[in-house]
Amino acid sequence: MSRQLCYLAATLWLISVATVFGQDAARASLGQQFKTDVRPFLTKYCLDCHGPEKQEGKLDLNGQTSVDAVVRNHQTWEIVRERLAAKEMPPADTAKQPSVVEREAVVSWINRVRDDEARRH
């Protein structure tokens, strides 16, 4: 094999390794943000109405415990994203309302999960 072909093969291999590593790092980052921002948000603002005891609109978010769970339920999370972005949820008449920063962090995270999945597929 020529030297140029060897360099090309090595370069392609390095690119593929870097891509896989980058995807793994992105998924790990999403997982960490789920633990620090998203799950606490759900617990504080969503699970009273969409949890194990009550499922308003037949929506139970209690089982959403990881990025993988969110990915498996992408249609549900698209609705969650839309409702949060439109400030429809949590309802304005509830006592607990997220701050703008909290709300935007979750909407941004959902968008990042969607982008990550698009890159993977």
Architecture overview:
This protein has 121 residues and is mainly alpha-helical. The protein is 69% helix and 0% strand. It has 4 helices and no strands. The protein has helices at 3-46, 67-72, 74-85, 100-120. Helix 1 runs antiparallel to helix 4 and helix 3 (74-85) packs antiparallel against helix 4. The longest helix is centred in the N-terminal third of the chain and has 44 residues, at 3-46. It is elongated, with a radius of gyration of 19 Å. The protein starts with a helix and ends with a helix.
Which H/E pattern describes the elements? HHHH
pLDDT averaged over residues: 85
- The helical percent reads 55-70%
Using only C-alpha atoms, the radius of gyration works out to 19 Å
pLDDT < 50 stretches: 12-22
* Number of separate strands: 0
Task: Measure the end-to-end span.
Answer: 33 Å
| Major sheet | none
Assembly type of the chains comes to single chain
Percentage beta strand: under 5%
What is the 3D shape? Answer: elongated
Q: Given the helix and strand composition, which structural class is it?
A: mainly alpha
Number of helices: 4
List the helices and strands and how they pair.
Layout (H helix, E strand, L loop, with lengths): L2 H44 L20 H6 L1 H12 L14 H21 L1
Helix pairs in contact: 1-4, 3-4
Summarize the structure.
This protein has 121 residues and is mostly helical. The chain has helices at 3-46, 67-72, 74-85, 100-120. The protein contains 4 helices and no strands.
Main attributes of the structure:
about 120 residues, about 0% strand, mainly alpha
